[in-house]
Structure prediction request, 69 residues.
Amino acid sequence: MSIASDNWRKSSYSGGGDGNNCVEIAGAPTRTAVRDSKAPNRGILTFRAATFATFVEGLKEATIRNEPH
Prediction:
């Protein structure tokens, strides 16, 4: 999966300061890529877009129920 540098975006929950305490994601039509914002050159995980969407929905539901994630 080839990703242009301007396609990466940080989570809105990245934290204060320089905002590098989180992950970055980049989307493509069929895949979503994830990397560590503190070490972006270390490696990238890729997921099928539908799988990543299900994962994010699960996190949202857990947050609403105030469950740890």
Notes: The chain has a mean pLDDT of 81. The helical segments are 49-64. The CA atoms of residues 36 and 42 lie 8 Å apart. Residues 49-64 form the longest helix (16 residues).
